[in-house]
Amino acid sequence: MYFTVSGEKISRARYKQLVNAQKNRRELIAAQLGRRDFLNMGLLTGAGYLVAKSGLSVHAESFMHRGQPASPPVRPFIEPLPIMPIKKKVPPGRLRPRPRVNPNTAAGEGRTIPHQAFNIFRPKVFYEVHQRATQVSVSPDLPIQTLWGFDGVVPGPTYVAEYGEPVLVRNFNDLPPLGQNGGFGLPSVTTHLHNGHTPSESDGGPCMFFERGQWYDQHYPNVLAGILSTHPGHGDINEAMSTLWYHDHRVDFTAQSTYKGLVGFYLLFNEFDTGKENKGFHLPNFPEYDIPLVFADKVFDEDGILFFDLFNLDGIIGDTFTVNGVVQPFFEVEPRRYRFRLLDVGPSRFFDFFLTDLDDLNKHNPFWVIANDGNLLPKPVQVENVRIGVAERVDVIIDFREFRGKSVYLENRVLQVDGRGPTGTILPAGQGNLLMRFDVSSRPVHDRSVDPDTMPSFYALPDTTAQPRIVRTFKFDRLNGQWSINGQFVSCEDNRVRIKKNSVEHWVLQNLSGDWQHPIHIHLEEHQILSRQRLPVDPVERGRKDVTRLTENEVVNLFFRFRDFTGTYPLHCHNTVHEDHAMMLLWEVVEEGEDNNIVP
Question: For residues 371 and 394, is the Cβ–Cβ distance under 8 A?
Fold first, then answer.
């Protein structure tokens, strides 16, 4: 008898060796060992490969880059799509001790830096959230999983916020102790509000983690960029954001914690993007017809338990797909327009989304992209497919009227076999990954939302003609089997770049890692892509972004304004495995920045 692993037929004996090696690696991972420990123990080579030790690795390099036992089969489209609950506010007096500017370490707060904008944008809305282990069913064909969630919800609850209403979140670390992590994960956390225009001490940076039994007050001003600088008092409306998300960002452990469930949406509304289709931009009503979707790919061991292979430094590619935490769900929709907010949480897979009608595989089914990385484009862009990397988001409008009484599928058709990124092959319709099914009712309904075909206008793009104070170059490469920026690994003790507050810079991202692809995320400020060396800037990318895909051997030029807040922020690859091994650097916004463009 033969088994198939990553497309290759192998013998029963070799398959058993692979399974045994996987079990032994799980034990090492559960022991809380990190990449530095594995190097010191001689379990990783200087090139970053797993040493071929008996019972640990079978043909190590092949296993690392190609092979893993297949997850147990599961039936698709038997579970309805879960919708994450909306996070409930708490009264201001509920939080004891009361929030304050300075860290309250005596009462157990993990924050060590004072809030810099607390008294400028005093909190009006308060939340309390607890990170803890929880029992979750991802499929009736798999065992109950022990995952980590915010308030015991996986993915976490959705925050619904308004511009002009500053928020304070008291975040408790109630995760289980060492040795009770269910196989992987470190109970030391920091929660990053991804894409937030947020002061450094509340950004959830990788080195601002807090431990079990501690809590951390995070202050989100919910203000438009430029409010304290280029557009005093109000901020720049053309910098308005809508689809943000939050996730664990603990240095060296981001991949494990997000894979285990510590992710969720944070939605921002204002007088234009109102969440009401009879006001503002007239986009579909939230939450009835405005649906956040979290996409992830997973690996389950032979017992059906979620598995994370810490020895894989290149990127984990799963063979089981979840949407909002459930394997390949179905969703009943009405024959009208819906807004879907698509988020790729990785850890390493890119998605290229198509709308597929299995009854007519030759039919093209266009839809509309209205936002990229949570930022509304100037006008909708009609597409037949849209690609995103890890941490990227797109908001799309799908009109289901032509599918009345039928079922259609959201399908990923780009081929990806390892952490390098997509191969370039687009699979035929119906031969990709059918991620979820839309079951369209036959009854007619009233739809008051704007028709994207009328080309409505949203926000304009900010000007990018200002002369940059400095042009900096960041080189992304592979060094001794790990991932580096400008030849160095991340260090929590080293802010490698000092940027002048309220200045303009151009950043050049250069991929020296060959045919590897990297979704690059820069905190605090959004950017605009000025040029790509290899490819033209796609119409969907011509908006404001916080993640830019750096494709093979490519150079990308970005425009930045650094405004309003000071402090330390990171730049990193958002393939979370690359990020943890250790393609990240820390930079700092200061009142007076450096006068040279050298990035050490």
Answer: yes
User: How far are the Cα atoms of 135, 142, 161, 294, 299 from residue 146, in angstroms, in the given order?
Assistant: 5, 12, 30, 19, 14
Q: What token pair was written down for 220? A: 């989100």
Which residue has tokens 């990053």? 192
DSSP label of 109: B
Under a CB-based contact definition with an 8 Å cutoff, are residues 255 and 308 in contact? Answer: yes
Query: Which one, of 307, 378, 404, 339, lies nearest residue 70 by Cα?
Result: 307
Backbone angles phi, psi at 167, to 5 degrees: -120, 145
Mapped onto helix, strand or coil, the DSSP state of residue 24 is helix
* Distance between CA atoms of residues 490 and 562, nearest Å: 22
Query: Domain 92-269: what homologous superfamily?
Result: Cupredoxins -  blue copper proteins (2.60.40.420)
Write out pLDDT tens, residues 178-200. Answer: 888 888 999 999 999 999 999 99
Sequence-ordered list of residues with C-beta below 8 angstroms from that of 73, at least 6 positions apart, any chain: 141
Cis amide linkage into residue 380, ω under 30° from 0 = no
534-590: pLDDT as tens digits: 778 899 999 999 999 999 999 999 999 999 999 999 999 999 999 999 999 999 999
Segment 216-255, tens digit of pLDDT = 999 999 999 999 999 999 999 999 999 999 999 999 999 9
| Strand intervals (E) in 93-136 | 125-136
Strand order in the sheet with 191-194: 159-162, 263-269, 243-248, 191-194
Taking the CA atoms of the chain, what radius of gyration do you get in angstroms? 23
* Cut 0.85: pTM above it: yes
Return the DSSP state at 72: P
Closest by CA position to 131, among listed 176, 166, 84: 176
Q: With respect to CATH, is domain 470-590 assigned 2.60.40.10?
A: no
What are phi and psi for residue 8, nearest 5 degrees?
-115, 130
Nearest Cα residue to 398 out of 360, 358, 369, 373: 369
Instruction: Please check whether residue 196 is in contact with residue 245, taking contact to mean a CB–CB distance below 8 angstroms.
Output: no
Residue ranges per domain, the chain? 2-65, 92-269, 293-454, 470-590
Q: State which H helix or E strand residue 580 sits in.
A: helix 576-580
CATH H-level, domain 293-454: superfamily: Cupredoxins -  blue copper proteins (2.60.40.420)
Asked if the domains 92-269 and 293-454 are classified in one and the same CATH topology, the answer is yes
Distance CA 173, CA 190 (A): 9
Residue % of the chain over a pLDDT of 90: 82
Report which DSSP code applies to 517: -
The answer to whether the Cα torsion of 299, 154, 211, 250 is positive or negative is: positive
User: Any idea of the CA torsion for 199, 205, 211, 213, to the nearest 10 degrees?
Assistant: 30
Q: In what order do the strands lie in the sheet with 167-173?
A: 145-150, 125-136, 167-173, 215-220
252's torsion region: left (phi>0), alpha (psi -120 to 50) or beta? left
Task: List strands edge to edge, sheet with 503-511.
Answer: 482-485, 470-479, 503-511, 555-562, 528-532
